[in-house]
Amino acid sequence: MPKKVLVGMSGGVDSTVCAWLLKRKGYEVYGLTLWLWDPSGPKENPCCSVNAAEIAARELGIPHETVQAHEEFFRLVIEPTLRAYREGRTPNPCTFCNREVRFALLLKEAEKRGIPYIATGHHARIREEDGKYLLLRGRDRAKDQSYFLYSLTQEELSRALFPIGELTKEEVKRIAREKGFTAAYLHESQDLCFAPRGIGELIPKAEPGPIVDLSGKVLGTHRGLPNYTVGQRRGLGISSPEPLYVLALDPTRNAVVVGPESALYAEGLVAGELTWIAGEPPGEAFSCEVQIRYRAAPMPCEVELKEGKAYVKFEKPQRAVTPGQAAVFYRGEVVLGGGVIERPIKNGA
Question: How far apart are CA 104 and CA 108, in angstroms?
C-alpha cells in the first residue's frame, strides 16, 4: 500500500515539482494550501495563490484542499513581527512562519486526515543518521532555505520530506517546463509577503524621534524605528561630511543611533531563544560556523552557552549584526540549531 503524504502547495514551481517527485516515487499525494490571508479577499498574493495551487493539483492529478489559517498567521507571525519592530529589532518573519504556521499547521492537518508524512518545496535536505534526523543545506546553495528551518524538531523532521532539496532551482524549473506545468511560468514569491511596500505600511503611527551620533548629539529626526535597520545608509535625511550608517535602534530613547561604517563591525553576538535540531546542543562550548542573515556567508566561530544564551565569537569581525535576526549554527552542510540575536558584542562587551 503506498505511503500517504500531504504536500503544502503554494501554487509555485517548487511545491508543484515537490508533489510530482513524490508521486513519481509511488507516494499517494494529497495537496493542501494553507491560506494565510483574508478569506473574503483575492485568492492570491506575492506569496501564494489558491488558484495556481488548484491548477497545479489538476495538472498533477491529485486531490487538493484549501484550509483557512489567517487568524493563526496574524497571531503567530504578523503580531510578533510588528512587536519586534516596535521594540527596535529587525525580525525575520519567515522563521516565525515556518516554525509556527507552515510546519505546525501542516502536521496538524495531516494528523486529522491520518496522513503520516508532510512535504514542502523547501530547498533543504533531511538525512537519518544513528537514529537522529539531520537537517542539511539544499543542494542549490543560492536557494538554500535551511536557515529558516533551524527550529524544526526531531518529531517534525521524522515526518517531513524535502524532495527538491536534492535539485538545483534550474533543475526544478526544467522539470516543470518539460512536464508542462503552469507553475513553470509564474513569478517567484517575494520576501515579507504581508508588507510588500515595507513594514512601515503596517505601523503607520510609529513615533518619530531623534537621530543621534555616538556622542549623543542630535543630528536629525527619524520617521519611526520600524522604518530603519542596522547597516542602513540611505534615507536618513541628514547631511554629514562622511557617510553615516544606522548602528543601533534604541527603543528606550526612541532614537536611531548613527555613525561611521567602521562602527558597524562586531566581534561576536549574544543570541537567545535557542533551539537545537538534535534536541540538545553539541556541547557547552563548541566550534562551528554561524550565519547571521539569510544571504550572509557562514563565518567560523566559537560558541559558549551560559544561562540559556549563546555567546558567539567570530573568527573575523562581522558587519551589521542585527538584533531580531536569526543566528543559525552549522557544521558544514548540517544545521545544528540557532537562536535570535539579542545584541552584538563590541570591544569585548
Answer: 6
